[in-house]
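Translate sequence into structure tokens.
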Amino acid sequence: TKQQQQQQQQQQHRKKHRHHRKVNMSKDIKNNNGDGNDGPKKVDNMLRLPSNAELIEGAGKVTMDEPQMWGRGIVNDIKRTVGTHWVEEMTNFNQKTIAVTFLVFISVIAPTLTFGAVYGKATENNIGAIETIIATAWVGVVYSLIGGMPTCIVGSTGPVLAFSTVIYNMSKSLDVPFLTFNAWVSVWLFAYTLIAGFFDLTRYVRLATRFTDEIFALLIVSIFVMDAIGDPFSDVGLLHYMNPDHASHTELEEEDPNYAYISSGFLSVILGLGTTSLIFFFRGFRHSPFFCNDGIRTSIHDFSVTLSVVVWTLVRELIFEHVETESLSVPDEIEPTFACCDSSCNTFFPDDCEGQAEAAGTRSWLVDFGDLNGKNWIPIMAAAPAILAFVLCYLDNGITWHLINHKSHNLKHGEAYNYDLCLNGFFNFVNGLLGLPWLVATTVPCIIHLNALADKDRDGNFLEVQETRLTMFFSHLMVGLSLLVLNVLKLLPLPVLYGVFLFMGLSSLPNIQFWNRFLLFFQQPSKYAKNCYTEHMEKRRIHMYTILQIGFFALVFLVQNLKAIAIIFPLMTLLCIPARLYLLPYFFEGWELLLLDGEDESIEQWAEAKEQSVRRYEESKHLSSMEESSSSDSADE
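Result follows.
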């Protein structure tokens, strides 16, 4: 009948349409998967969704960079950094340069003076606050001009201080002057850094991944937070002002009989926490709708630390002028800390000559390399402790450099590990010659410097960084010039600076993935932040990785805070690298390590491969269902 003929024509039309769709989809699949000569096998493979481990071959494996031996690494570092970007980095002056300069100065001057005071106690005033200020100033200025990675701030660190104490104790047991022995160790340290740079030994530090970097970063951040709030291993921090036996109360009670420690302690806590809160308040204007234009909001954001320090210093001086608080301990004169009882300068005034009215003078600025007390084998023997000094500088510098140069920070001007290690060895050689402390890259000031120079989105991701030499140059020049206005520095309340330290630590936490994963323990799983590892990994696997990382962090933290073994703290940090390379693969698959510990580019590559595999799988399922439908239609006919 006519109706049957129409039904047959419609059926043939649908069959023809399905055939064309099937041919087109087959072509697409062949284009995505090869030439298609092994057709049935290809289709069978596409019916199975690839596992996560099959998406990228060798996922999670860490490989070493190609070695640049015989000094080629140093030459390439210079060409890549100083030789290419020096003019740009010395001329990109703007408002942010001024704001970051003040921030870095405040971040550097307080720990410099603090370390100077501790050096004085540890070395019986052979090295003190004046020496620490001079070393920090000249090294910072020169490094900003010729260094390869000027984003990294140099300064004193706890491990180097601990090692200097060991060197001092060794000199006492050997019965040789400390500064002479330290100078010979500095000579060997410089030689070792030259050898390391010449043979590109810094490539081993570059084996460190996010696992090691973030353990080290969180450790340094925790030190700043504890030192600001209250360190349980010392009497440093705001909460310790509430202790009536705190050293600052004893000194102030001697000056004022009516001194009340509770008033001073309570005001100190208010000043510190108020400084931190006001900094965050000012920085919040950056993305707010307040004020008439973006320029004003940016200015308030950039100068937030300086403004907060000024405001709370004025609060202390104008409103609470009758309540005493601890201020920075600043030396009175610009001269070597070691004052001599006599012309030989082997005894310290006034401790070793109490009946003497005044000092006979101060030590010479140049260390006498020949003052060996008859022990002419000391220059050779100094090579042994210099090996440990080299390991210390190698790790302190290398891990900090690796952390700052992480790809997520979008630094474009290159790395200079070998060149900067040689420079650091030279700087410390000169410091040893002058009786000044050794300096290395300091992690938290480096992070603060980097974050201050960066433009970020609302989620804290780095968009770009103003890579400049000017902020480090001007800030360390100000450190040197502060020697001319030491009395002005005494106006800064120490609790206000503790508030700056607290800000440094807290502002760094959101950018540390280790910290964000730790917070997942206390969050509802359905509310986890959306990222690659939370979307594709089991929750228990994420927590297992975090627990292992906490274990390594606790081990390094414990070693760092036990004075008897604190000197091996960098070695414990170094052990995290082989632990990541050889231990973690026993607990996690390669793709899991990639998502948790890999570079952002590799993670994006894996995510794209995952998306493509799912899309192809869905296409193959649809093709298979069309073939089954076509076979069914043929059977019906």
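Note: The two ends are 17 Å apart (CA to CA).
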